[in-house]
Amino acid sequence: MRILVIEDEAKQADYVKRGLSEAGYTVDVARDGIEGRYLATEGDYQLVVLDIMLPGVDGFGVLSALREKRNTPVLMLTARDLVEDRVRGLQSGADDYLVKPFAFSELLARIGALLRRGPAANAEATNSKLTISDLEMDLLSRKASRAGQRLELTAKEFALLALLARRKGQILSRTTLAEQVWDMNFDSDTNVVEVAIRRLRAKMDDPFRPKLLHNVRGMGYVLEERA
């Protein structure tokens, strides 16, 4: 799932992005209200984390513009624990509220709750179950199994497998995997993709038959059942 974080405090934005990325989400960051308003209304996001105090356009302005076009779940952040701010935000269409400073575990829990009940949940639920041979994945509960055995995957391993499963039969390059799973520009000196593929294969492919995760020399990797 893709999340937009609209936050002008660089350290706070980087902290939230890093934590959510490690939890398996794809995260974009806007540093001011003008950019945030554009991305929120024109982009394809399942949730927006929105700070109130923003340069250019404040969080209420961004929320108002978003609600004119979309019903994307919004979690508002503020450094001020004022009842007036919370009431205004909720009346303007915010789905939840979190006061800074906050524990990242609480942010993650609130995001999970919003995604489970948000408008994207019903649409996502119809496509949340993926099956390839005896590999089964539930994208909402973030669980995977083979031959009925639960696979203990890290957040990044699950995100990597989910990407490959969604595009089963398609060869995905290391560049594509690095960009979409790690949100990084591919560096030929970085072996993060190869290491992750090796660890994923050890958990979900090596102990089972048939083999599903294949290398395609000079091109990348593909998840598919082969005769």
TrEMBL record:
Q: Which domain of life is it from?
A: Bacteria
Instruction: List, alphabetically, the Gene3D superfamilies matched.
Output: 3.40.50.2300, 6.10.250.690, Winged helix-like DNA-binding domain superfamily/Winged helix DNA-binding domain (1.10.10.10)
Q: Domain Response regulatory spans what residues?
A: 2-115
One Pfam family named in its UniProt record: Response_reg
MF-aspect GO terms: phosphorelay response regulator activity; transcription cis-regulatory region binding
Keyword entries, A-Z:
Cadmium, DNA-binding, Phosphoprotein, Transcription, Transcription regulation, Two-component regulatory system
Q: Which residues bind DNA?
A: 127-225
- Location of 4-aspartylphosphate modifications: 51
GO BP annotations, alphabetical order: regulation of DNA-templated transcription
State if DNA-binding is listed as a keyword: yes
Gene Ontology terms: cellular component: cytosol; protein-DNA complex
Q: Matching PROSITE patterns, A to Z?
A: OMPR_PHOB (PS51755), RESPONSE_REGULATORY (PS50110)
Q: What name is this protein filed under? A: Transcriptional activator protein IrlR 5
Q: From which source organism is this entry?
A: Hydrogenophaga intermedia
Lineage at the top is:
Bacteria, Pseudomonadati, Pseudomonadota, Betaproteobacteria, Burkholderiales
